[in-house]
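Hi, here's the filled form for the chain we discussed.

Project: internal
Contact: R.S.
Residues: 400
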Amino acid sequence: MNSKIKNYVTDTQGKALDLSVINDFKSSVCNCSNLAILPGFCDVHVHFREPGFSYKETIKTGSLSAARGGFTAVCTMPNLNPVPDSVENLKVQTDIIKKNAVISVYPYASITVGQKGQELSDLDALSDKVIGFSDDGKGVQDEKMISLAMQKTKELNKILVCHCEDDSLLNGGYIHLGEYAKTHGHRGICSESEYKMIERDVELLSKYDCAYHVCHVSTKESVEIIRKAKEKGLNVTCETAPHYLILDDLDLQEDGRFKMNPPIRSKSDKQALIEGVLDGTIDMIATDHAPHSKEEKGRGLEKSVFGVVGLETSFPAMYTYFVKTGIMSMEHLVILMAYNPAKRFGIDITGDYSIWDLDKEFIVDSTDFLSMGKATPFEGMKMFGENLLTVKNGKVVYKK
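And the returned structure, exactly as it came back:
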């Protein structure tokens, strides 16, 4: 192997890595000057849309997209048809996963039946078959219901993964209630709609003490609430996504590829998120990869559906804007994208890795994505880092 190759798997895990699988790949390796061997990334928040919405994405295309992005394990959200709220409904999804996934795909079951927030799903029967429980896409509005979920997941020793959004505070908004919304006549989503529900849940967590994880944190108040909860020793972790760390609401354009939920927030929110990542308040990077059809994302900022894709840009975006700029080390990024999520969710990524040409410069072009979804707020932006090879359990699952 080229002596210039930096092995972040060995450096971070403290164990040797079997690289024999790349013997037929050495010519490509030796033609590059700045290579890194990175552990298989783990994304605990993706939407692969199958069953029910395979015109947006499938298990196969989603997992191929993930493999290209260097991911060897992902956790899929339950906003599907049928909703995985019973063993029977879950089996529809797991049968497809077994047949078509090229990496490890761990499904969530829904917290409530049909994700309607009115009755708990069959958590007992589902517990040993899922990575955790989430109603992602919807916040559990009823305090009694989320309390029951906390008690039950504590009993089952499973993680409760919450989309925190108070519907009563949305007021028809669809982007952040900030400067761009005000100057362009858009209805805004206030920060309170997120952090007030996190505040509620953290208060309940002090009573029920379950393993609790907050999805896609986007506001400065949310970061502070979670920071204080951790200082109290509560069992809470959280994630944010690259677009919340790189963009703010003044970067928005009148295009559906800038519409996601929660929305891209203000510059002060972005800075608080960065500080939260650097000081350990925010535990991991997740993409909230949420593909939609071209028609669904082509209706402009107001009328397009919520959701953008991110698996193929996640590492290049974070590497370009945070490692190359010296804001964080590569070791820290590896912890955020691989080891922290794997540890928190009990996922084994031992022996999984990808090889990246860190000097490769490119312009983000969604037409090149393996994902069926093409809506990305990073379209046209310059980034660094090209994945050459992804290996899962000793098997090549992506090769350039």
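Let me know if anything looks off before we file it.
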